[in-house]
Amino acid sequence: MLEELARTAWLTVALDPGAGPLEPWLVRKHFERKHGRDAYYGQEKRRHGG
Question: What is the pTM of this model?
């Protein structure tokens, strides 16, 4: 995964040398959709006890 992320970053800079970091709101949006209180990405949460 790390190598794929490094490749993606390298390609981004190769295509646009002026590319900067993502906007904080965009990073937060994608983090929250998987890990936030109201996560909606990935598998459903498992219920304990059967």
Answer: 0.53
Give me the average pLDDT of each 10-residue run along the chain (50 residues).
Answer: 96 96 94 87 63
3-state secondary structure of 2: helix
At 14, is the secondary structure helix, strand, or coil? helix
Residue with tokens 């490094």: 6
What is the rounded radius of gyration, in angstroms, for the C-alpha atoms of the chain?
Answer: 16
Q: Which amino acid is at 18?
A: G
Furthest-apart CA atoms within the chain: distance in Å = 53
- Measured distance CA(30)–CA(41) in Å, rounded: 9
